[in-house]
Amino acid sequence: MVEQKVVEPEYLLLEAPRERKFITGSQAFAEAIKRANVDIAIAYPITPQSETMHLVGDLWAQGYVKDYYRAEEEYGAMSAIAGAVRGGARAFSATSGPGLLRGLEAIVSWPGHRIPAVLGVMTRVVNAPLSIQPDNVEIAYLLHSGLIVLHAENQQDVFDFTLAGFPISEKVDVYLPVVVATEGFFVTHAKGYVNLPPEDMKLPPRDPYKAPVPPTDCEIPPARIQRDAPVQKSNFMSYLIHAVWQQEVWSANERARKWIKHYLGGLIEVVNPEAEVFIVASGCAAAQGREAQRYAEMEGLNVGLVKVKSIRPFPKQELREVLKKAKAIIVPEHNIVGWLCKEVKAVVPDGDRVVEGPRVYGGMTLPVELIMDEIYRVLGVKKEKKTLV
Amino acid sequence: MAEKKLITPGPAGYIPKPAAFLGVDTPPPGKALLYGEMIDEETAMREAAKAMLTRRNPTIFPGPLVLWGWNSGAIEKAQAVLELAKEIPNCRIIPMPDYRPKYPKIDPEAEINPNHPNLTILHNKIEACIFVGVHCHYANLSLRMIRAGTNCFTIALCAEMGHEDAMVSLRDVHAGDILRFRDVVVEVRRELGIEWEPKLPPENPSLPKEEWTSVSPLDFGEYAYLLMPRRGEIVEETE
Amino acid sequence: MGLEYVKISPGFERYMPRDYVDLVKMGQFGKEVDVMQLGQFKELVEDHPMCAGCYMAYFIRIFYASLPNPEDTIILGTAGCARLALSQAAVPFIYGNYGDTNAVASGLKRALTIRFPDKHKDVVVIAGDGGLMDIGFGMTMHSWFRREKFTTIMVDNEVYGNTGGQESGMSPKGIQLKMAPKGKQFDKINAVELAKTAGCVYVAKLSPTNPKRISKVIRRAILAARHFGPTFIHAYTSCNIEYSIPTREVLADARNREKKDFKFYEWMTDEVREFFEEMEKKQKEEVRS
After folding, report:
1. C17 contacts B204? CB cut-off 8 A
2. pTM to 2 decimals?
3. Closest by Cα among C208, C205, C196, C137 to C169
């Protein structure tokens, strides 16, 4: 293990010199954890996130992570994360597809418990039928939970979002878990260029006393405490108590906007803001959208890209501003339900401008040609298609 | 002063929108919140002082981080709170010793609890209050419930980032800042022409009074065993 | 530091409500109390909404009076009846999702060990038969397989009391309860044997009729968990409502069960046995001197 010195998160994320490496998404997650001063990581096998947790286990064996174990299943893993974070530790875990759904009861209760942690979600098809291939319909299940959801486009995003996830989640006015989602295999097992800060630096340790709720460690009052008492309506509760608790979770979600801007440069990224047709996408679809925008530019078409980094909190104002004058909005996705499309349609005026697709799912890749077809269609460009028999 | 006051004393309704949904954000370091608008600390403190001096039944709600002397910072802060309480005319102190729901019924003159703060506010007809030393999460819950159901003016002296649901919210408040607020209170009191000799608020009504006309076993404290016979022991006479 | 956080700030003794002042002045923090002195000190548990005649409520009161170090103890509970009393005590209480007590306790104990390697932080799970043996079975057993160092206490009322009286895995065979209109079809789960096989270092089974015995068993379980591994107590705490036991007969019922299937049983590894012998020998010497 390399001796690491503690530096401020702003320095590590925004100012430190970076070196270019060619690594997989799983390695990018592990590189972020190496520099994140994590206390405990809890693992459970499920493809395609197992590689990430193997590497995090190696980090534990080397001394970068203080405790690590394989849990009995995802619900147990996520409940243990809640316990460890309440005890004052900084925690990380990862899961995929059916594993996410198995652990969902615990995961969706984290925001209400005010548990700051980072969860890696490496998307994979949700059963049935079974497949291990990438499909991000599982993110739709996280949208109503109150967690902060960041969707990484590539290996670089995976590193930055995971490392930034810790300071964002531990801000006193946020104190919510951060999900860093990315496509399984397309990002986790494929290699890409990642600029990494030096490995002899790490984030400051978590200070559990700088928090909106006390940790349960018998060191800080109050003693007589049930941090989150069962607040069913009763003669000794206000009828509003559960409602204001939920409002607190979603207010914290809103407050996270400024921190996402601070550490990640914004909730969206825009290429060619003067375009008349926009591709709005997140995750791998954004990478394909980026290629499509490049092809279109080469052909002289005025097409722009909006990459959505943060799914929750959703960049409502930013999208309304950018898409004000767009003639058409194309939303490519890696799932059948079109959760991103629904979100976009809900915030932009004149939703008929939104093209609901192209969508691929069940593990299929998203060829750039599919997006180009939509671009040609909305711009009225005729392209001859030759079919060779 | 703010043109459009977003967060004003209620009652705001059955289930009002929280301040964060209305676009109010926590203030940056060095600033404060007044009615949901970002403003300098001095103006916010003066408004808060005015509210505590002119509204009925001003009360300070100290939370566990002040009530329990778990480190020197807490003890210092506790002292500062008492100094502040001395300078507010007819001020009361009602503690929030912990966050669990009180069963079966809270004594609203003795304490306040974040699961049902409106009981204490309404029973005591409190129209201006200060929250200090309460963990942010529970302070936010209380502030929203108070704004929904009562006409109380809330002031939050936060050690961290502040509270958007209070009418006045100061951030990074430690013992020194509480004393600074106290000085503002004294100044505003003089400007308003209110006469007041510094005096500590009355004690908690649930504490037993010092009178010995009736004695109960509880008064014996650790000597209660003198009154309760052990198994097989026959007590013939007691003094 | 544990004791510091239950001291009232100077100046605020006259502003704290009475029960907190009593708790600090006449309570258990920092003192050695014997369960037989119950009634002469301010208990950790306050008013609670348990039913009249609930044996669990009695057990929980004895439990709190037996804690070796209440200022450094954290209790975990889950959905059920026990949490109604546990949430009203002056000891931090964690209440998560149903059945996750042992998983949360694993994470919590590990975090506390990382942060306070030189201190004893006692983690105790108190949950019912449904939470530990049905819905939480996997998490319970695996926390024992992993030899996590905390105490699990099952308050077994042989029914899902809090949800209205449904059959539980620990209900006796043949009993007619809700969701078992034709009577329970399979036997009562043998939790104690499962705990032994899974790797608990101290296992006890009792019907809580003798306060001194209850207190001794609880102390032993907590002290063994500090050093050796997971410990388990299976306590019979009847539900007088669902089993229609008149309140005045609840204690007789407990004594009755003690003669039948809840005979006092204690099992421990040799290491733990040696530890207790030494500890109790030292205590006797201290008392003598």
Report:
1. yes
2. 0.93
3. C137
Cα–Cα distance, C34 to A206 (Å, whole number): 39
Residue C23 to residue C41: CA distance in whole angstroms: 9
Residue in B60, B65, B111, B113 to test binding to C, most C beta-carbons within 10 Å: B111
> Closest Cα partner for A120 from A195, A23, A198, A50?
A50
Could you say which of C89, C90, C146 has the minimum Cβ distance to residue A69? Answer: C146
The architecture (CATH level 2) of A268-379 comes to 3-Layer(aba) Sandwich (3.40)
Q: What is the dihedral of CA A367, A373, A378, A381, to 10 degrees?
A: 140
pLDDT in tens, chain C (289 residues): 456 667 899 999 999 998 888 888 888 888 888 999 988 899 998 788 899 999 999 999 999 999 999 989 999 999 999 998 898 888 999 988 999 999 999 999 999 999 999 999 999 999 999 999 999 999 999 999 999 999 999 999 999 999 999 999 999 999 999 999 999 999 999 999 999 999 999 999 999 999 999 999 999 999 999 999 999 999 999 999 999 999 999 999 999 999 999 999 999 999 999 999 999 999 999 888 8
The CA-based angle C22-C23-C26, given to 5 degrees, is 65
Q: Where in chain A are the domains? A: 5-202, 268-379
Domain B19-192 has CATH 2.40.70: no
Pick A67's closest partner by Cβ from C72, C110, C138: C110
CA Rg value for chain B: 21
Query: Which pLDDT value is given to residue C1?
Result: 42
**What average pLDDT score do residues A344-368 get?**
94
Give the other-Cβ count within 10 Å of A313's Cβ: 17
Q: Is A244 on the interface with B (CB under 8 A)?
A: yes
What the block records as the tokens of B6 is: 């977003």
Task: Report the residue from B26, B67, B104 with minimal CB separation from A255.
Answer: B26
Helix or strand holding residue A5 (H, E): strand A5-6
Q: With beta carbons less than 8 A apart as the criterion, state whether B194 and B207 touch.
A: no
Domains A5-202 and A268-379 share a fold: yes
Q: Residue A224 and residue C5: Cβ atoms within 8 Å?
A: no
Q: Which residues of C touch A84 (CB under 8 A)?
A: 107-108, 110-111
Would you kindly state where each structural domain of chain B is located, as residue ranges?
19-192
- By the 8 A CB rule, do B125 and B54 touch? no
Give the one of B18, B26, B115 whose C-beta lies nearest to A231's C-beta. B115
Domain A5-202 is found in CATH 3.40.50.970: yes
Q: What's the pLDDT band for B70 if we cut at 50, 70, 90?
A: confident
Pair of tokens at residue A21: 């490496």
Q: What is the dihedral of CA C42, C44, C45, C46, to 10 degrees?
A: 50
Cis? peptide before A177, omega within 30° of 0:
no
Is C34 part of the contact surface with chain B (CB cutoff 8 Å)?
no
Backbone phi and psi for residue C89, each to the nearest 5 degrees, phi listed first = -110, 160
| CA A160-A166-A172 angle, 5° bins | 135
> What part of A 10-69 touches C (C-beta under 8 Å)?
39-40, 42, 66-67, 69
Q: Could you tell me which chains touch chain C, where touching means 3 or more CB pairs under 8 A?
A: A, B
A42: chain C residues, CB-CB within 8 Å: 107
SS3 content of chain B, % helix, strand, coil (to 5): 35, 10, 50
B170 in helix, strand or coil? strand
pLDDT at residue B41 in the model: 95
Q: In terms of Cα–Cα distance, which of A220, A146, A213 is closest to B136?
A: A213
CB contact under 8 A, B137 and A248: yes
Res B229: pLDDT: 65
The ipTM of this complex is 0.93
User: Which residue ranges form the domains of chain C, and what is each CATH number?
Assistant: 35-288 (3.40.50.970)
